[in-house]
Amino acid sequence: MQANLTWLDWIVIAGYLGGTTALGLYVSRKVRSSESFFMGGRAFGKAIMIAQNLGTGTHSDQAVGVAGAAYTVGLSGIWYQWIWLFTTPFYWLLAPVFRRLRMLTTADFFAVRYGRSYSIAYAVFCIYLFALWQGIAIKGTAETVAAIIGMPEWIVAATVGIAFTLYGVAGGLVAAAITDFVQGFLIVLLSFLVVPFGLIKVGGFAGMRHALPPHYFAVFSPDGGELSAFNVAMLVISGLAGIVVQPHMMAVTASGKTEMNCRVGWTYGNFVKRVCTIGWTLTGMLAASLFPGIAFHDREKVFGMAVTSLLPTGLIGLMTASLLATVMSTCSAFMVDGAALFTENIYRPIVGADKSDAHFLKIARISSVAITGLGFIIGSSMGSVINATVQFISILPFIGVAFWVGIIWPRATRTGAWASTIGSAAVFFITKWRGESNAWSSLYSILTGLGLIILVSLFTPKEPEENLLRVFGYMRVPVGQEELLPQGGVTDGA
Amino acid sequence: MEPKNTGEASLIVDLLQLHKLFSWSTYRVDLLGFLGAWAMVAAFIVFYLWLATW
Description:
- The complex is a heterodimer of chains A (494) and B (54).
- Chain A is built from 22 helices and no strands.
- In chain A, α12 (229-243) crosses α18 (385-395).
- Chain A is an all-alpha fold and 494 residues long.
- Helix content of chain B is 56%, strand content 0%.
- Chain B has 2 helices and no strands.
- Classes of the chains: A mainly alpha (494), B mainly alpha (54).
- The interface between A and B is medium-sized, with 37 and 31 residues.
């Protein structure tokens, strides 16, 4: 499916890579402390927050995955990403909770709420997740871009990796967020660029309907299919239970200057992504109309095939730059957030807080590079992008239940949290091993986690009062009224 | 000292005490934005159904 790139395509690609890296390096001049590296000084406005949430949460492997699913099952392939549609309104309620905690990472929250050992276990798990997600994003994009421009996959991956590592290491979250602003436009462009050309070729929506069988336009897959109503409902519940402990959430949702900026950024940045998902789905359905007969295991190649077959030369360079933009915006943010977890929640507690801030900033930069390197290694062993998405949605609620209960019920204890996490993980894997579907295993697992944290907490000692004051006292004081923050609470991890 | 009632109290944090604390003015920002976001979800679903039947 390699395209014939013209000099104009190459200028666009080179201009994008050079321009983004230069912009990231330019804005990195003001990064002098570890907090400005991790949180951008909590000074972002609404536009940057929307772009940051769109850019961090969107990568081209999702477009490739949804287009591939739509190629196979039709319109209902959209649910692989639209499972998050029903969780999006809750972001409006959750954003001020994160912002009011006034912490750098979610592991900081766990350290105060459930103790240091739970926090370190969470941090280690999340650093692995960051590396895994970077690996998935880089691999998915490199595969598609390499096929389009006819270069070896490793050259594409290395070029992208060097570019975002350069500005991410120098500028932290500030560089990631500012470059996200530019990359956000390219993500929207990527989502819809193919659609008009495909519609013209297939004869409009009427032509597409004529070319595809009726089940391609079903709202859900037929019962028992991979996207039945029950499976979608369980993915929604699991998604909501797990979204709060996605390790980058503290940075991308709590770095706004005001609570309203955080609410608008998280909620509406994700609504923009839901719009983009429509474009990915239509691209997959257009591909099914125009290039039928591609094998199931090759379905994730249809996005690249649509690009090379439908776009005129000149626009292919723009599409390639957009594909690169999605992976760079995501990975630069993950790199910074992973460094925050390592530096603040593993390195600082072990080495001690007596070192200078400059020392921790240096450690943050070194660990950024190390986590990205780990991502490259993990990415080379990954299978299907969609399978990986479903797996992590199922796994995060093991910890997510403890977070939800921890912000609602002061009586929840660290022993209850451990019991919930271990119990729900055990039930999930045992039921999977016994042959249950992912959806039923998730339901049993979440109910077990919820039951265990309540039951065990009632029979174990309450958490120290000063820890509860640091969590609940802070969550009740809006940003801007800091003079009302409770005194005497622990500051550990804050 | 209690925070001023600016309509910004958190529905999630107060969830277990809502039967005692609830009033529109206390949770105004949460409620307006949450309902607005659900209106957006409804608009997406209507568009999706339109695509499916067109």
